[in-house]
């Protein structure tokens, strides 16, 4: 079976189970190809994550713009951590949420996709290059196995974000990555990662914390000859990275 056919098959099977526990999105309803859903038990999964040393030891965290980690963005701000994230729009760019600049009563709003653009500040890659390194990255995903191999919506956004941050020297091969998922998204089977796929170090579900023994982290930065031209055309940071010669 071809890799793309395999990934599509896995996604469709997991999405059928996720439909039973997912929280719909007002923009996309249950179109799991358009967003990463929150789910029943999401609070417990985040509680497991925030108790983990990767989170406790982090000062700067990249948190994907996924519904299942919205409450994590709020908690990170309350805990005094700097949050780096991307917007959810087609013109995907980076934003920083600084807890020192966001009043406590506004942090819930700031943690949402609409609020972050009002309460945070946009940053380009030159700004990110001057920031402290990212200590921890957190994402939702579509499916994941016990080796930390994850399949998202199929767009490759998180892997591109890792590639850009790696090219800038803000993450390294040992920078931990976490995935937050429902138990039904964890598979007992082999998944086949590509060279640019970012494997998780740890998986948090409502009932389990799954530590990955040998997570694979891409060190290839952005593979320009394999990048979807549509991604390049619609994601300004990729255009900026290319102009930087990285």
UniProtKB/TrEMBL annotation:
Organism: Segnochrobactrum spirostomi
A GO term from the CC aspect: cytoplasm
Claim: Ligase is one of the keywords in the record: yes
InterPro entries in the record: FTHF_cligase (IPR002698), FTHF_cligase-like_sf (IPR024185), NagB/RpiA_transferase-like (IPR037171)
Pfam families from the UniProt entry: 5-FTHF_cyc-lig
Keywords on record: Ligase
UniProt GO molecular function: ligase activity
Listed transmembrane segments: none
Entry protein name: 5-formyltetrahydrofolate cyclo-ligase
Keyword Ligase: yes
